[in-house]
Write a structure and sequence with these properties.
Structural class: alpha/beta
CATH architecture: 3-Layer(aba) Sandwich
CATH class: Alpha Beta
Largest sheet: 5 strands, parallel
Number of helices: 7
Strand content: 5-15%
Number of domains: 1
Order of helices and strands: EHHEHHHEHEEH
Distance between the termini: 22 Å
Number of strands: 5
Helix content: 40-55%
Strand order of the largest sheet: 3-2-1-4-5
Shape: globular
Length: 141
Amino acid sequence: MSISIIIDTCVFISALRSNRGASFKILSLIDSGKFEFYLSVALVLEYEAVAKRSTQKLELTDSDIEELIDYMCAVGKSRQVHFLWRPSLKDPSDDFILELAVESQCNYIVTHNIRDFAGAGKFKVKVITPQKFLKIIGAIS
């Protein structure tokens, strides 16, 4: 069985901010074959909107962000969400990520905001930090 994940937007942005952390390591491994990651139109649009609002802080151009997102779309697996389970989470703006995880039958949602996904367990989706995920796939000890 392969490991499949959803990369939360906070992990994506964290990876863009620093090349030293676990979030960056996960993004650097997206085409390694160690795991599969899933995307939806809504998630890609959120990645883009949040990253482009932060371009000055990130020291990236809009073009840099678009190229990275295009690459992620090329190597990730796209899913359309056909069923909505709202509201399921404390923050309704995170429901679409949980719905994508359920639709994709993902093992994990990788996020820095574990508490925001309380309730994901009832859908048999585990919520973990980037560092814990890297330990699971053997990328760090």
